[in-house]
Every structure is written in C-alpha cells, then in structure tokens.
Amino acid sequence: MPGINIETLYLIMKKIIIILTLFCSYTTQSQNLVNIEVPSIVVHRMEMAIQKANALPVPSWCNTMVLKQNRKIIIEKCIKTLYHNFMPPEGAVLYEGVMPSVSIYRGLWSWDSWKHAYSLAYIDKELAENSVRSMYAYQNEAGMIADCIFADKEKNNWRNTKAPLSTWAVYEIYNATKDTGFLKEMYPKLLKYHYWWFADRDHDKNGICEFGCTDGSIQAARWECWDNAIRFDSIVMIKNSNNAFSMDVESVDLNAYLYLEKDILITIATILNDNTKAKSLIAEKKKLGELIRKLFFNKKDGFYYDVNLKDKSFILCKEASGWLPLFAGIATKEQAAKIKDMMMNENVFNTFVPLAVAGKDNPKYEPDGYWRGPVWLDQFYFGYMGLKRYGYDKEAESLLLKLLQNAPNITSTSDVALREYYNSKTGEGLGTQYFGWTAAHLLMMMLDK
C-alpha cells in the first residue's frame, strides 16, 4: 500500500478492530437488553418473536431516542416474560400455553390465556392459537369454560369462569394470521360459550348478565371478576338454577365484553358465510347496546356504573369498569367525552400512575389494595384503547407516557420482573413477579395493537 508504512497500517487495523468490537458488543447488548430465564425448548421461538415485534411499525407516540430505546426494552422484557411462563403440554393440559406466573400459578387460567393469546398473535401464531385451544379443550356440555386447568385435571376450577374475552383473542389471531381454519375450528365453541352467559348468568332474564359461580359462594363469584372490588363489597348470591348462581349486581364491564363479543361474532359469522347467524347477532347487539346505555350510564355525573339487580339503582363507585363501554364501542360521542374527562381528572383516575382501577375520590380507595385502587395493566389497556377508539389519541398517549415515566419497573433493565399491579400513588410494583398479562398488555401497546 503506497505511502503507508507497516506501523501506520498496524495502527489503522487496530482502530478498525476496536470499532468492530464495540459495534458487535452494542449489537449483542441491544438484542439482550433484559436477562430473564426462558426454557431452552422455546428460546429460538422467543428470539424470532422479538425480531418480529421489532420489525412492526413504531407507534407515533414513540418519537424520541429515549422512547424508542425504552420501547425496545419493554418489547424484549414482555416477550421474555411470556416465554418465561411457557407451559408445554403436561398431563391433562393438552396444548401448550402461558402461565400467569411460573413462580406461583403452575397451570393455565382462562382470562390470562385470552390476553396472552391476543398479544402473541403477531409474533407466535402457534402459541397464540394453542393458548386458546388449551382452555377450550375443557369446555363443558353447557358451554362453560373453566376458570383454570392443571396437569392434574382433578384440580381444575369449575366453581367459576372468567370474563368473556376469548372471541376478542381469536379474532385478533385471525387478523394477524388470516387462518380461516382456526376461525372455523373455534367459531361454534365461541358461540356456545357466549350464549352460556345468558343461560346461566342472567337472573331476571332481562338480557343483562351478572358475574356469579356454580356453587353459590361469594368467594367463587368474586374470582369470576375482580376479587375484592369495592363495588362488590355488599354482594348477595342468588340462585338461578342448579349449579348456576348470580351476584345481586349487574356489571357494566361484563355486559360490555358480551356486547364486544356479539360485534366480533358478527364479523366472524360473515367471514364464514353464516349469514343467518350474523343477521340475528346484529339484532342482539343493537338491543344489548341500548340496554347498556340506558341501564348503566348515570347522566348526573357522566359515568357508567354497576347497578343493583333488584331495583336497578346505581352502585356509585367509580371504577375502571366504567370505561369498558369506550373499549367496546358502546358509548355515544357525548358519553365518551364525559368519560374521558373523568379519566383525565387528577382527583379521580389520573393518579400518579394513571388509570387506577378505583377512583381516588372514593373513601375506600387504596393505592396498593389489589382491586381497590392500584393500576392493573389490562384495565389501563382497555382505557387507553377506548380513548383512542373515540379519537382521544392525545389524551391516551399522555397517560401511557405518564405510566412509563412513573412506574420505573416497566422500563428497568435491572428490575426485570414485571409485576401483577402497580401502586397508583407511588409507582411501586406489587403482587406476583413476572406476571403474564402485564407483559401481554404492555406488548400490545408497544406494537399498537
């Protein structure tokens, strides 16, 4: 090489090696931002999932280098958490799935499985579909899905089920994969479970359902929804029929989920050319929407509340359940504006970590009290997506950025265990570690799904 002596060439090559070493080191670190143990049998699937997630479009709110880096951390942290909780077929569990948390919950739960499946739709088709199949493998003759299943099926909990979100998950899997075979497989099962609610959980047959249980116990009925929610402090159980009991409360969130199911089932029926069913579902959806708007919306303060079964009086306890009509698309534009104002009010739901499950203005509000005031990421997600559905993108994104800023566990690379829920006053992570649906809902928002 003319004009360059051996010593100079050596120094140039040394600098190139240093630069390459630093680049390789950065690349390795950027692909391993969070150290979470994952079963060896799914490591490759996890790595592919992270690649797929990072290849999806970046949401518009993620518009700075810091936010983009935090988004990468969250994506990796969430995906590794989900695979950390991976459960292969085991004993009476016939399909693979994702446990709520491998450290405590060694089994599969229905509500958790629907959320896990939705979040995995774009990054692991097989695990998403099997998360749904695992629970539906135990659908009983009446249509009910068990609360949770285990390798020893004698431990399966049939005392209660969980809120109906499986249709929502199945349709998102279809959106991601266009797998009509899976849609055909699940469609009759989804219908059966949907109508089970109206058969076994509608005490007065007015078309509005209640949470409940199969054994008449308050404990099991609470498990079917939010275990210790303030709105359920005074519940009494009422018998509907053999093995079917309802709370004496009609809940807005349950009926919003059922409305959303009817809406999605109309689309599925249309895709599968079941036009007769689609037509009947359209009529059912319209009727249910009218009932929800009439029964649960309080015009005096502009929010949705549960009501007492007997006299239909409001249970005036502001909870996250009141923004489910936004998520499901039930609220009118005028109602949505009032609900938005309530969600953005710093004296109610816009707490230090925003969208607490119980309003700060409630005397029974507890910022660290399980379902009595902390922030749960599923309910945050429903509120976030509900606001966006009605065009309040700016407000929704401001709440998300506030969440990421004030709950440092979410973006931390050292405090790697995502928590079950978060103290709405301090941001402290609480409850179970490596919690699956926290990971699932954070991932959904990072992927803008």
What would a concise description of this structure say?
With about 450 residues, the chain is mostly helical.
Description:
The chain is mainly alpha-helical. The protein has two domains: 1-30; 32-446, Glycosyltransferase (Alpha/alpha barrel). Helix content is 48%, strand content 8%. It has 15 helices and 13 strands. A three-stranded antiparallel sheet has the order 5-7-6. The longest helix is centred in the first third of the chain and has 25 residues, at 6-30. The protein is globular, with a radius of gyration of 24 Å.
Topology summary:
Elements: H1 6-30, H2 43-55, H3 65-84, E1 86-87, E2 97-98, E3 108-109, H4 110-120, H5 125-136, E4 148-149, H6 166-177, H7 180-200, E5 212-213, H8 218-223, E6 237-241, E7 244-247, E8 249-250, H9 252-271, H10 275-296, E9 297-298, E10 303-304, E11 307-308, H11 324-328, H12 333-344, H13 377-389, H14 393-406, E12 419-422, E13 429-433, H15 436-446
Helix pairs in contact: 2-3, 3-15, 4-5, 4-6, 4-15, 5-6, 6-7, 7-9, 9-10, 13-14
